[in-house]
Amino acid sequence: MSVRIEVGNRDLEIVVVADDGAPPRLLRCGPPSWAADLPAGQPLIEIVTGDSGHAPSSSRITYGELSSRLRYVDHAVTDLPGGWTELTLTTRETQPGPAHRLGTVTGLGLEAVVRVTVPPTGCALRSEVTVTNAADAPEPRTLTSVASAALHVALGHDADSAPDALTLATARNDWIGESRWRVAPLRSSGLEELGLGERTVGSRGHVSVASRGTWSTGGHLPCGALWNTADGAAVVWQVENNGGWRFDIAENAEGTSLALSGPTEDDHRWLAVLAPGQSFTTVPASLAFGDDLDAAAAAMTGLRRLSRRAHPDNEELPVVYNDYMNTLMGDPTTEKLLPLIDAAADAGADYFVMDAGWYSDTDDWWSTVGDWIPSTVRFPGGMGLVFDRIRERGMRPGIWLEPEVVGVDAEAAKRLPREAFFLSRGVPVVESERLHLDLRHPAARAHLDAVIDRLVAEFGIRYFKFDYNVTVARGTDHDADSAGAGLLAYNRAHIDWLAGILDRHPDVTLENCGSGAMRADWAMLSVSQLQSTSDQEEAEFSAPIAAAAPFAMLPEQAANWAYPAADMSPEKTAFTLANGVLGRLYLSGFLHLLSADQKELVAEAVRVHKDLRPFIRTATPSWPLGLEQRDEPWQALALRDETQTVLTLWHQDGAATDVRVPLPSLRGRDVDVEVLFPASAPAWEIAWSPEGGVLEVTAGEPCLAARVLRLTPQ
Questions:
Q1: Which of 289, 314, 421, 694 could bridge to 30 as Cys pair (CB 3.0-4.6 Å)?
Q2: Which tens digits make up the pLDDT trace of 291-345?
Q3: CATH number of the domain at 312-532, please?
Q4: Architecture of domain 2-307
């Protein structure tokens, strides 16, 4: 008997088959035009348990011995609110494994349910798996990894799944060096040719990318892409957790496999012990497909817009001024802030955000954070006077907070119970002179809720910049099966706490920051309205970060610093302002000290950005010069919809002045090219070649410079 299950939408076809004697697997997954079936072999559900391990032995999150013993039980297809569709497929352990032969496991108690949700439109899906130990099972079972999604990768019309046919893109992510993409053939990325075709087995090794510690993106981004090198057909993915995650790319006898996972024992000290009747649900993971990388990225962008929390900011996209970067750098006072407030209002900002330092009478505040009481030394007349001035100038007030940590010298460190913090064998975890609050504990949550509610009530705060400047390697083992399990439970409690703020204060906007973008994952971004893309202080190094940001987040969430300074040339001033025009314009700098011409450039950038906001929140991104741009002489980011393409080009100092920008979506069409910003700058030579679909650009001088161009097909 064979069961065939079909689900999808007009853009996506998913077919699952469940044959007798084999676990369910994906037969098809991608656009309906991809007619070829995926290779056989890779189970849809991949589980590794302490009592069964791998078969054959490896450190992969696939090849779970238990996975090969799961059999189809039933399934259901359900219509969900908003036009979403959900496939729920139930499997059960139906055959004894190696531990049964030892007598250490005596029942067949594990059940695994995969839930695949499909949006109303778009070639994308989300997947998660729930594993349950049956209520009548005779003993507990220990999970060491559970993949959220697993499939063979066979892309395009020919569905070639061999590693030799594929190109891989992954991104290193570090403080002031975010979104450093590397694009290379899969074989040279670590999945070497071992002659496995002659052995009819898969590799023991794999390309594995995983997080470390509580900075979910402190080493790599939890997203990536594979594409068919021959025709460009692509898959893009993301793992949606604000803590531990991992993805594996490996070679099976049938071709290339991809598995996406939350925390694992090998990487995050995670395991889950399921007593009879207990369940564990993985973090979600999402996949998007397209005939090229741009199409797959567009499908993922659409999925993100449909899966994020509704909020007025999503539509309005207010311009933010923040006093930190290259400006007050954590040293605000009333005297210093007032001229900045006036200058930000004159430039057209909608929010004015006071950054770090407001809670301390001195500059040495690192170990005292956590009480969040305004300084009386910095604000002799009271901090409320500053926020009153912000409102008088027509802006909404915001404030910086690092809510999850408490300095060892703070009163809260002494007042809160020990169990309100991360613990290791009963001892509080200390990292960089900070304790870490455990939001599973009611005292920790009550402490932070009181802080937020007080700041909203007393000062009318309408914007919180939530920072996170430590990474804790091991989570908490208090009231948890493992330190990794404690961290995952904390991660989920953290998201719930953020949602609670927005439930109580629906007009408050939340910015996600973690030493720049050290926690820029979709779990956080699905509930936060903005994401700080970097702490980078140098304009020339900010451009590639701004260009790459929309691969991991929505363009309208990408808070890119734009920090003009009085000593910048007109071209460099425009260069830093261009960072935010196609993202979320995030101003800083001593704007009141700028020349009249520079002030006009700032006001112009704000006007152009505001005019583009309806376009930005619906457009999809592409990278006409490729994703791997950090060390290139030119960087490029394009946003496009059915009517126009808007392109930002950044030229690095001293680089070649000529660049050819492929825009294949416009090939064969006559195009009008307009310089949107800066309109008054020296003209660049720009020529459009409709036959090749290439924009040929020559900068006037070999200096740091940028232009924002609009291309409109005639």
A1: 289
A2: 999 999 999 999 999 999 999 999 999 999 999 999 999 999 999 999 999 999 9
A3: 3.20.20.70
A4: Distorted Sandwich (2.70)
